[in-house]
Design a protein that fits this description.
about 15% helix, 5-stranded antiparallel beta sheet, alpha+beta, 12 strands, 3-stranded antiparallel beta sheet, 2 helices, about 200 residues
Length: about 200
């Protein structure tokens, strides 16, 4: 074999090797929630796009395997967090760890990975909230908005906090409660307002 043929053969080999690596490397996939386990903060995820499998005459499409017991991201810090009603049909991004996450997931300790796998389908973490154009949020707020449904939402605006619900609003405290408004006041609009226990209403003037 001459040098040119050898170089072509080596190039083809490395090209095939590179293609194989990229075809099997898992970095990020778009998924759809199949089921949710709120107690363990885990979801089962269907990959939204089919993979192409090379065949003699081209490619055939094949569904990805269901990803099971994928931990999902909960926004928070310390003892505070935000929880959302994750449900079937929600879309998400699944990112795949450089290392096996089982030891960390089960103990939270600084331990070596239980296996030497990298970017494996077993080591995904779901980030829920991405949406395709058919499911975009209507009337997206430029402020901080907690939106549960058309029936209830809370919005933190530049000029105050707006809370709306067509059902009951319950404010419950196990200790003392103090409400103070300087300058603007507090407006309560309702067909019926009920206040129980001791109530003090007054001002310094």
């Amino acid at each position: 074999m001459d040098n040119f043929s050898s170089e072509v053969s080596d190039f083809t080999l490395f090209e095939q090797l590179g293609r194989t690596i990229f075809e099997t490397l898992n970095v990020m996939k778009i998924g759809i929630i199949d089921s949710a386990d709120w107690d363990n903060q885990e979801v089962d995820v269907k990959i939204a796009m089919k993979k192409q499998i090379p065949i003699k005459d081209g490619f055939e499409l094949q569904e990805e395997s269901l990803l099971v017991k994928v931990p999902f991201l909960c926004l928070g810090g310390g003892d505070s967090y935000l929880s959302f009603p994750v449900k079937q049909g929600d879309e998400c991004l699944v990112i795949f760890s450089d290392f096996a996450i089982q030891n960390w997931r089960s103990t939270g300790q600084f331990l070596p990975p239980n296996e030497l796998r990298k970017h494996d389908l077993c080591d995904g973490i779901a980030i829920i909230g991405i949406r395709n154009v058919n499911r975009l949020i209507k009337n997206y707020s430029q402020f901080v908005k907690l939106f549960m449904s058309d029936r209830s939402f809370m919005e933190v605006r530049d000029d105050g906090i707006y809370l709306e619900s067509i059902s009951n609003i319950d404010l419950v405290t196990t200790g003392n409660s103090s409400e103070t408004a300087d300058g603007t006041g507090v407006n309560v609009v309702a067909d019926h307002t009920s206040i129980s226990k001791d109530v003090f209403i007054g001002n310094d003037t």
